[in-house]
Amino acid sequence: MYCIYTFIFISHGFSSLKFNHNVHDVKALFAPNLHQICLPVFATYTMIWFLTMRKKVTTIPEIATTFTGMFYLGYIPSFWVRIRTLGSSREPTRIAPLLAPFLEALGQKASALPSWLPKVVHLPITSGAIFIFWTWCSIAFSDVGAYFAGRKFGKTKLGKIAPAAGAASPNKTVEGYIGGSIFAACFATAGAYVMRWPHWYITGPVHGILLAFLGLVGDLTASVLKRDSGMKDFGDLLPEHGGIMDRVDSFIFTAPYSWLVISFIIPALKAKQRLAIP
What we know:
It contains 13 helices and no strands.
């Protein structure tokens, strides 16, 4: 997925960011503790390149564009890779007994991989991977719910509440956003139940609503970038849909939030729940 992000960005003239973007994801997979150092290191490298390899002084828009690319398409999405590495010894979910034969067969296949690969590659289904599955389903169906609810019930333009957001995407409606939030909340609640989250009937809907909101922020951010650059779509790889980035813009800003949830919030709630049990 993230390699596709890189390809899209490079195809629009930012080839210098390819190595940086891949390094973010590789570092997140092999050395997640060093993940946060990638952005400042490559920002420093970029400035060294600007100062030593160009004949003219670099402009602020050029620097800002490059740094935005590193942050927006490199650093932020790489949190999904960090989530993927969490929980090599996965906790059993409510549907684990049904999937046990499949997971056992998958584990046998993975055991034949080279020993130098991270453990999460040897064991493809981690707690983080399960969390990603339900979270991505929630985000995807948030888009679906927003589309159909907007077409069926959409009357109040988003621009009436947030003029800048409405200017970035004139067709979006408040009713569409509410419909997307409901769809996301339903799937997130199902995921919270399956993953045995504490107070799943509360944490699930809240998680889904926040995913829908941050997904909308990602969608509108992509619209802002396209409008400012004079593009209708990020590409034409997918007929009637544009480029890959047009399909996954909702997954950008949901990544660090999701990492925060699975790394700190849910473990804290579980610890509190264990302490409450006599």
